[in-house]
Design a protein that fits this description.
The protein is of the alpha/beta class. The protein has 13 helices and 16 strands. The protein has a 7-stranded mixed β-sheet with strand order 3-2-1-4-14-15-16, with no helix packed on it. A 4-stranded parallel β-sheet has the order 10-11-12-13. It has a 3-stranded parallel β-sheet with strand order 5-6-7. Helix 4 packs parallel to helix 5 and helix 8 packs across helix 9.
């Protein structure tokens, strides 16, 4: 199938503004031609955009498609079958919001990715981490103090989405196992976290030897390591060991941001996650000790953006919303828009996201040879980031790989 998009304003994130007078031809799953002059394509179906904005599909670099509970310990009562059933709805709703690509930061496996790729369920392109890896007693460890060990994999969704490894050899083996299972990248927990019961935020998790073991194995396999980290100490340790992206990073300071920029390490902030948990997580079961940690990291969100911008750290878009909070996935646009120009916010969810998933020139742009992942927006997102609202009411068309997921034109 081929489609010719006409009568549009083209927003390629490499530009500073949307430009009128362009046409875009899609053939198969890729963009064939982009021109400021009329394109001749007699066999193509013409899509009149009515002067709306055509732009690349959005990329969310930190989602958890299998985390269907805000208080993660409730995943203990979710068997693998129910976890997957819930995930199908979460994936479709992400695509409904205009996210044509997501990087799952722990939980989704090759079966989920294959189901989407083969068209069994609707959803974004997926770059998966399989089970995230953490040490005993760390952010990944959900065992109660009275537990002897985790139950079997099939009966407990929480066990399926994370694993525990101690020492360089165990970390090396766990890393190899995730890649054997089809991981596009490997996730490590290197500091304390909000949604875990026993570890302080400032705790350092994994030694340099353990982190380096994972980085070596990932590089040997043609993959990379992303790390959950909040404090300057944890971020610095991870960066020096060769990780590629830092997730969260709320407590970053100026010297650490400078180090990240020097090493070319990406930051993936998730400010909406903390904002939403502050407002809604208590009623969804999250206990006080976790909410208190959430309040602590929430205080530093805007400072993180400012420090990273000043240092020149490239920041990708990430939401990290668990369970019912998923409906706020696009609110991150408006939060960042308070302290960043709109074009920078959009670039974080297009150009920079494409760099993070290592698909430069294939995703996040509107150019010949790129995948035909496209949105038609009712208005100019550069003037109103609120156009990316939950459910996509202002998205007249959503195309992924040359096929319409939605077409109201």
């Amino acid at each position: 199938m081929s489609f010719l998009f006409k009568n549009l304003r083209l927003l390629d994130p490499r530009w500073k503004e949307a430009r009128a007078g362009y046409e875009v031809l899609v053939e198969g799953d890729v963009i064939k031609e982009v021109s400021a002059k009329p394109i001749k394509a007699s066999d193509a179906s013409v899509i009149d955009c009515g002067k709306r904005t055509l732009m690349p599909g959005l990329i969310d670099c930190h989602v958890h498609t299998h985390h269907s509970e805000v208080y993660i310990n409730r995943m203990e009562a979710v068997p693998l079958t129910l976890m997957m059933a819930r995930s199908t709805g979460r994936l479709k709703r992400m695509l409904d919001r205009g996210f044509t690509t997501v990087r799952d930061a722990g939980g989704a496996d090759w079966g989920t990715k294959t189901a989407v790729d083969s068209g069994l369920i609707p959803g974004p392109r997926m770059f998966i981490s399989c089970r995230s890896i953490g040490p005993t007693g760390g952010h990944n460890d959900r065992n109660r103090r009275t537990d002897i060990g985790p139950p079997c994999l099939c009966c407990n969704g929480m066990v399926f989405i994370r694993c525990i490894a101690d020492g360089p050899d165990e970390v090396r083996k766990a890393t190899r196992e995730q890649m054997r299972q089809g991981a596009d990248q490997v996730k490590l927990m290197v500091s304390g976290g909000v949604a875990s019961p026993y570890d302080p935020l400032e705790s350092l998790q994994f030694t340099e030897e353990e982190i380096t073991a994972a980085v070596e194995e990932a590089h040997a396999f043609g993959r990379y390591v992303l790390t959950h980290a909040y404090t300057p100490e944890a971020i610095t340790r991870a960066v020096k060991c060769g990780v590629r992206t830092i997730e969260h990073g709320n407590l970053v300071d100026a010297p650490t941001a400078k180090l990240m920029a020097q090493k070319g390490v990406y930051m993936v902030p998730n400010l909406i996650a903390y904002d939403a948990m502050k407002r809604r997580a208590a009623e969804l079961g999250m206990p006080k000790e976790m909410l208190d940690k959430n309040d602590e990291v929430l205080k530093y969100g805007f400072k993180e953006l400012e420090l990273c911008r000043k240092a020149g750290v490239r920041m990708a878009y990430g939401s990290d919303l668990l369970g019912a909070l998923e409906d706020e996935q696009t609110v991150e646009f408006q939060i960042r828009g308070r302290v960043m120009p709109a074009i920078e916010v959009i670039r974080s969810a297009t150009l920079i996201g494409a760099e993070v998933v290592r698909q430069e020139g294939k995703l996040g742009v509107v150019e010949p040879g790129a995948f035909a992942d496209l949105l038609v927006v009712d208005g100019d997102p550069l003037k109103n980031l609120g156009l990316f609202k939950d459910g996509g009411p202002h998205l007249s068309a959503i195309m992924k790989g040359g096929r319409f997921h939605k077409n109201a034109l």
